[in-house]
Specification:
4-stranded antiparallel β-sheet; 101 residues; 3 helices; homodimer; alpha+beta; Alpha-Beta Plaits; 4 strands
Chain lengths: 101, 101
Amino acid sequence: MHVTLVEVRVKPEHVSDFIVATRINHLESVREPGNRRFDVLQSPQEENRFLLYEAYVSAEAAQAHRQSVHYLTWRDSVAGWMVEPRRSVLYRGLFPELAQP
Amino acid sequence: MHVTLVEVRVKPEHVSDFIVATRINHLESVREPGNRRFDVLQSPQEENRFLLYEAYVSAEAAQAHRQSVHYLTWRDSVAGWMVEPRRSVLYRGLFPELAQP
């Protein structure tokens, strides 16, 4: 699996907006054929900190996600709600042994 | 979901040992009734850095994991292979909407 962890820090007054917009992105993303996980996590200590856990069968499938209407809509919707630019970290998924990049 | 991210930095000479031991822990953990994910990730830049992504339906299910024979066996096996103590971060899983803690 090709895994991206995205750390997002949201302005406190836009936490609810962010959750609504990200739920829509989640629901569409898990329907992509190459998607294996699109988990939306919230920090229990700091409720304006989120982590998106996105796993795809390949780097190509992850790239296709970034060209989807639902991703581009989400990206534009949340752009003004973040405290700072979001940060992405890539990992190679070893297990479960799904398709590798 | 009750999610734990575990960051592990392994001594370079024990990377293969770590992958073998963690694969066994993965295979047993995904069979636990409360488990939803037990993904084992490796950094593509630093091959001795790993991330375990562990999601359970509840805090109780995560606690039951830490009392399992396979977890305790893994914990003892890898203890001497780490460069530094592993670091855990907890998250609340919002989506997918599985059971909450």
